[in-house]
Amino acid sequence: MKIYNNSELKLDSSIVTIGAFDGLHRGHQSLIKQAVKSAKQARVPSVVYTFNPPPRVLFQNKQVLTTVPEKVELLNGLGIDYVILANFNHAYAARGALEFIQELYEIQPKEVIVGPDFTFGKEKLGNLHFLSQYFQVTVTPFVHCKKGKIISSSRIRKLMERNEMEQVKDLLGRKGLGILNF
Question: Which candidate, 140, 153, 135, places its Cα nearest to that of 51?
């Protein structure tokens, strides 16, 4: 697996999944596994496009669930070929949705795999409909836990605040999270 900053990687074709992927929980893993599977079927590289720090950390001062080295290690274990790690700061966040689309053209996605709530660009004006005007988009449904609730990084943070670590482990699908090895 190779890691690039945004706008550095150029590919003739790819399958890409995009997201903050903070925590790399079971929902994130589902998206990433779908991208790897689709890329193998299409015989093109798989790409994860992610952000450092995650947008909620920058805008809402939320706790980072997975450091960059941990995220890279976990992504490598999922079989991704390339990771684009965008430096998410206020200047990056001010970019319009079309500017993000133009950047994606550099890796020529045959398919973009995202979750149902995916938005992008300044003020989240880019949405699934907008993205599908430029690329083939596959929307992977939310993953639910045994209790039927959607698995999300926000939910994991709330469970951590209540010290419900067994549920956190279940949602992550693995032992440990960041500096917290439990």
Answer: 153
Q: How many CA atoms lie within 13 A of 149 on its CB side?
A: 12
CATH classification of the domain holding 77: 3.40.50.620
- Domain of residue 45: give its range: 2-142
CA dihedral (122, 150, 66, 165) in degrees, to 10, reads 150
> At which residue do the structure tokens 């992927």 appear?
21
Token digits of residue 182: 């439990």
User: What is the rounded (10 degree) CA torsion for 115, 110, 72, 68?
Assistant: -60
Quick one: average pLDDT of 42-70? 92
Look at residue 47 and give its three-state secondary structure: strand
Task: Return d(Cα 5, Cα 21) in angstroms, integer.
Answer: 16
The string of pLDDT tens digits covering residues 108-142 is: 999 999 999 999 999 888 999 999 999 999 999 99
Query: What is the spatial order of strands in the sheet that 137-139 belongs to?
Result: 2-5, 82-87, 46-52, 14-18, 109-114, 137-139
What domain count does the chain have?
1
